[in-house]
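Subject: Sanity check before I submit

Could someone independently write out the structure tokens for this chain? I want to compare against mine line by line before I put it in a report. The sequence has 210 residues.
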Amino acid sequence: MFVLLVCALLTVAAADECRCTPNQWEGDMGLVLGSTYAGNTSLTEGTMQISYDAVKKMIVTRQSLMYNNIPVQQTIIEDFTNGISYTVTAQGCSSKALGPWIPNCIPSNATTANLRYGLGDNSVDARSYMVDYGTFMVYFAVTADTCVPVAEDVTGTFDGAQIMEVITFANIKAGISDSNVFAIPANCPTQNSVPLPGVNRRASMFRGYV
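---
Independent answer below. Compare away.
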């Protein structure tokens, strides 16, 4: 799944490894997601800017996507404290109930391998992980010292759909440069924070719920 320079034997994640991503970070993501459901196929591809704040328990993704060749410009604001996910577009804002906060931490049952990304001196030590969720598998890589996201693949069956998702990360920076990114637009409706069936599961390690 990942381009590797050096790879060791797979082992259970060691206790001395970093376990969670930084509490606050932001950066760019590239996304390709193919899925098949009830005989219908779909393709989503594009870029996203993500702001992750474990202190506020909020994740924001500003998305510029193509869904089956249809352009999609939207911002997803996940407010886990209040249990609400907002979708903001040029047409307005909608909301839905959100599942519980799940920190971006490596599961204890993940298998891992050491690797290097890059070429020569222009490279970084990293670790790849594989997590088996039964109906789907998640493969992801983070920097070895600080658990900064590098890449992620998801493949298998999720909520009845056959999916394959590839995510790459770039320009990751610690902290949040502008806290206003988490502001909820005034036209967004409020929602009773009762989780809906299925929303307490997610396929991605890093970008909240699908």
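---
OP: Matches mine. For the report I'm noting this point. The chain has one domain: 11-182.
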